[in-house]
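Worked problem 6 (solution included).
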Amino acid sequence: MGAIAGIAYARAEAASYRLRRVNVPAPSAGGSLRILHLSDLHMTPRRRRLRDWVSGLASLAPDYVVVTGDFLAHPDAIRPALEALGPLRDAPGAFVLGSNDYFAPRPINPLQYFAGPSDVDPRRRELPWPDLVAPLEESGWAHLANTDTSVVVRGMSLHVRGVDDPHIGRDDYAPVAGRAEADLTLGIAHAPYLRVINAMAADGVDVMLAGHTHGGQVRVPGVGALVTNCDLPPSRARGMSSYPRPTLRTPVGAASDRQMWLHVSAGLGTSPYAPLRFACPPEATLITVGG
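Solution. The predicted structure is:
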């Protein structure tokens, strides 16, 4: 009975969506920006409650929206994903894709995650991801697959760089490398692999956003995440943390330039084959920089 009750609770928690709010100091004087970070929706046609909850986040009126991949978990999920994001697309934003946007999910033994990051099964069906990208770009959102963009939001110059999904080796940081001149520099990636985090930190990125880990998805109270499905330490599997810059490519003196803020979202969905969460509720995060 205890096992049945635990599974029932974990299924209920997987649909208990939460909004977290975090603040980080502005890297330069003046101004503030509210960034809504979404990740890992793993949308399917049946996830109507998730669709409606995400759509309701438009009432927050964020200044900028970032989605760090894994929008999809089904070949027919593009329409519900776009419906969920519809009202939010009035704000400027940027996004990257994750492996589950490129390939449909398949069942996997959860114990395999303890052996290291998962591999992409070559039998996985390719999803029609261009049909997701095109309308998002038409809304004005930037698809940052190994590229960058610059925009002015609320009078602040914002530089955003992103890489395609490192989990399946699609990342190429070289095209976006270097220090940017902007009031705020954001870096985004789906999977927070250390090679990407270190490169962005060394180039003076102020805040990096990622997803993929699901926060561990099943966390042990008092211990936290046990796995991250990448090479990120489990202690950083969820939430905002300061990340030391391994090497500063240019001499800088500001205190804020001695660290980068790293935010890893626990995400909003799960694989349809593992619709469980424990001590790790699904989340979206409103990040206020400065103010």
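Discussion: The longest helix spans residues 2-13.
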